Amino acid sequence: MVKYCKCAYYLFPLLNGAHYCNNQEDPDWVPCYYNIWDTVSHREQCINMCQQPCNDSNYKMTISMADWPSAAAEDWIFHVLSYEKDTSLDITVNRDGIMRLNIYFEEFNYRSISESPTTNVVWLLSNLGGQFGFWMGGSVLCIIEFGEIIIDCIWITILKILAWIRDRRQKKRRPQYNDPPPTVAELVEAYSNSGFQHEDSNQVSTPIPGTPPPNYDSLRLKQIDAIDVISSDDE
């Protein structure tokens, strides 16, 4: 203030060789004061120099207008003060020349001021869970079930992909011909006979009848001698 405005503000101590600002000698001190107050450098300097105190003690002063000492204790108080001030002969002890000062605690209360965040991680998760349960009817179990469904879908997809890859590999390893390999004789016969054709193993054979044939004597096999004997007897 003294450096830029050439005068001191009345709320601050007066430096040596400076004077307080007044409108007669310093008519422009008010705009100068507000310009200094609004500067960034002044704010930084004030923040660095005028930091928040860690401990602060405030004393409240009360004044009593009662006469002290009282009439009953006046002689004793004056006697004690006269005894303590016996070396000072020029001091006259009377009621107007003494004062009583009591310093004591008005209230035995301890107040602690601390700062804490309004919302932390725990409260944030709690509020989100409460809103989710209120508006959507969900809970922690629902979230776990959704997670389980997602994990199951991913796991089933992985299993299907692995099975598809395994089938592709097995198809590549399978032979190109489903027929059994030919023997050496078949190979030689096919080489020497151009009309040779390999029999189809899958050819359907003649089915066996399900019912037995009729029981006729003509279908039975007999010896020739026995047939001749029977014919001679008939003759």
TrEMBL record:
Q: Which GO terms describe its cellular component?
A: apical plasma membrane; cytoplasmic vesicle; sodium channel complex
Q: Where in the cell is it found?
A: Apical cell membrane; Cytoplasmic vesicle
Q: Where is the composition biased (Polar residues)?
A: 197-208
Checking Pfam families in the record gives:
ASC
Any one GO MF term held by the record is: ligand-gated sodium channel activity
Q: Which reaction does it catalyse?
A: Na(+)(in) = Na(+)(out)
- Signal peptide boundaries: none
Superkingdom of this entry's organism? Eukaryota
Sorted keywords for this record are: Cell membrane, Cytoplasmic vesicle, Disulfide bond, Ion channel, Ion transport, Membrane, Sodium, Sodium channel, Sodium transport, Transmembrane, Transmembrane helix, Transport
InterPro entries, per database record? ENaC
**Carries keyword Transmembrane?**
yes
Q: Which residues cross the membrane?
A: 132-165
Q: How is it placed in the membrane, per its record?
A: Multi-pass membrane protein
Region: Disordered, residue numbers: 197-218
The family annotation for this protein states: Belongs to the amiloride-sensitive sodium channel (TC 1.A.6) family.
Record's protein name: Amiloride-sensitive sodium channel subunit beta
Native source species: Aquarana catesbeiana (American bullfrog)
